[in-house]
Amino acid sequence: MSLSKNRLKYIRSLKEKKYRSEYGTFVAEGNKLVCDLLPLLKCQMLVATASFLATTDTSNIDEVIEVNDNQLAQASFLQNPQQALGVFFQQRAESTEDVKDQLVLALDGIQDPGNMGTIVRLADWYGIKNIFCSHDTADIYNPKVVQATMGALTRVNIHYIDLADFLNKNKNTPVYGTFLDGKNMYEQEITPHGIVVMGNEGNGIRPETEKFITKKLYIPNYPAGQETSESLNVAVATAIICAEFRRRS
Amino acid sequence: MSLSKNRLKYIRSLKEKKYRSEYGTFVAEGNKLVCDLLPLLKCQMLVATASFLATTDTSNIDEVIEVNDNQLAQASFLQNPQQALGVFFQQRAESTEDVKDQLVLALDGIQDPGNMGTIVRLADWYGIKNIFCSHDTADIYNPKVVQATMGALTRVNIHYIDLADFLNKNKNTPVYGTFLDGKNMYEQEITPHGIVVMGNEGNGIRPETEKFITKKLYIPNYPAGQETSESLNVAVATAIICAEFRRRS
Prior knowledge:
The first copy, chain A, is 32% helix and 22% strand. Chain A contains ten helices and ten strands. In chain A, strand 2, helix 4 and strand 3 (63-66) form a beta-alpha-beta unit. The longest helix of chain A has 14 residues, at 234-247.
């Protein structure tokens, strides 16, 4: 098999959500990530160098295309392509709406692919199995998100839902959110289970989401009251919150 | 003033460290960031839309160039340019080598500009005034780093130094680092002051740096022992560590 113009066009089209949804596939790149995903997800097409293919079991892959570094660079979305690019079939998250016995995240319009992928990766670290995202949150299959998850996307269920509707259905579950006018999280009671809402990078949590929040938390800066950055990066804030929930549970 | 070809070429050249070092300047973009920096740093050139200029005090700026959105896009390093691009003079970090009465970060080859900027931003949040970086750590004046700091770069001193030499000079200070084979950080004694070393995204802390580390910490995953992501993003790990140091001090 060679990397025909049509195949190249197909791969490049997967940068756009429209085409990813149409084909039900997505791109993952790099020696390590591709190797991690191959046993877990059905691979439609593997574009890789001879040295990668020499050490990889490709028996379950629909189409295997050996390329040199220049050809790989043409297909790649990375600045520094690394040996392999896989087109994988998307994995549908199992539908889960009842979350009362677990800690879950709800993302209200996270835009940056790097933040999104980093949040999925840290959710996996902290044993968070479900993330509920508003429809305008970055797509888990965006190539930049996929790379930033470092493979965690196979271990965390990502649900794109109507967030207000989801929170309304879980009214008996504690809902946490971080706010600059919230209360010091180290001095607040927190439950081991519940929903932690994280908001958009620029605008935070939407008013229509905020009304479902039962406890507003503040991540204290140091020293208290000192003038500092006005906020933390959203992935960083998510990490600090998740670490604290798990430390106390 | 108009945006001449020469000025455009000058601005675009500042994407490269070589030219930033030669001219001693760097680029910051966006309405909010430029407004935050204007009172703090000497501005050499401001390229901005009429609406931005109408509400901004430009009296101390060497050169003010009014542009429309298309012209701004030609100069900008952002995907979505926003009203203003400033060329500012770099601010030299004051030389500090004795760090015994403070908490500082040491970065051992952090590569990703987004991670670097995010770390500076969270250091500011946690009142960390000095960050010591190996010479191969991402440049603080890289446009992507500048944007990710969200202005924190004026409040944190960033030192590029020989890391082994720096750690050798601070042998009486506790030096912490995160390792997958470290000890649960919640069960370890930690001092309010000390040096926290964070390593490169792919390779972690170098062996020649590791030998100076007096306490290896592990950020516990959850549930303990469960198979999860192999590691956390470095900015996320830095955040969790800094939060814990500050919580306990």
